[in-house]
User: Which sequence fits this backbone?
């Protein structure tokens, strides 16, 4: 049996591939993908595996591989590690990359174009996944995987440690204005529905309840707390 699969690493990077091995024990063989796994010490059991198609017909695998490659935009999307479309033939991907006479990239408006491209890819992926449940839905990372991730981060210093803030000593009146009053969500008063207690700021409520931003947003959606104008 030949399996066409999608792998997702704990970092969120995806890879589309095919194998005749056990797809849940096989980590994948793409050049960039293997480099990503090695850099993060990820193994097959750390990955989320979704079987997209399976068949003994190589032509069917090739057809579906090409279809999913176009659907997910695996080559150009920043969320995928594929260097070329998955056509089901495997092999060395380096022969598909032209290393000679590579022109210097034009960085004019690079970031604005990249941002627009990411939005386009995100919308495309969102549309393609509508009605399809996540392959990780209802699952949880094993304690072993969590411990590996924790160990990997131990001793690593933040990239900006020891670097002064670029805004230190810089006056930003427009920013200060935006962070005052109703423009700053943490400055808005809220009311706890169950007790009727009023908190002068969101931050005060989060600190008293010892919850983070996402837990607060969940309570807000469940109408356990409401924003109010009382100061």
Assistant:
């Amino acid at each position: 049996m030949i399996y066409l699969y999608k792998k997702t690493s704990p970092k969120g990077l995806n890879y589309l591939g095919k194998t005749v091995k056990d797809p849940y024990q096989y980590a994948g063989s793409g050049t960039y993908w293997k480099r990503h796994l090695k850099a993060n010490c990820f193994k097959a059991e750390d990955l989320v595996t979704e079987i997209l198609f399976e068949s003994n017909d190589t032509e069917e695998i090739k057809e579906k591989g090409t279809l999913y490659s176009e659907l997910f935009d695996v080559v150009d999307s920043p969320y995928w590690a594929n260097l070329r479309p998955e056509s089901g033939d495997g092999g060395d991907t380096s022969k598909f990359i032209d290393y000679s006479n590579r022109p210097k990239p034009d960085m004019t408006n690079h970031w604005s174009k990249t941002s627009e491209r990411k939005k386009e890819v995100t919308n495309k992926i969102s549309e393609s996944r509508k009605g399809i449940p996540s392959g990780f839905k209802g699952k949880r990372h094993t304690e072993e995987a969590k411990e590996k991730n924790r160990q990997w981060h131990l001793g690593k210093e933040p990239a900006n440690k020891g670097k002064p803030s670029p805004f230190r000593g810089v006056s930003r009146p427009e920013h200060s204005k935006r962070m005052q009053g109703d423009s700053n969500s943490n400055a808005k008063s809220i009311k706890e529905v169950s007790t009727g207690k009023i908190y002068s700021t969101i931050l005060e409520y989060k600190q008293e309840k010892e919850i983070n931003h996402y837990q607060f947003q969940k309570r807000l959606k469940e109408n356990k707390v409401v924003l109010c104008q009382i100061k």
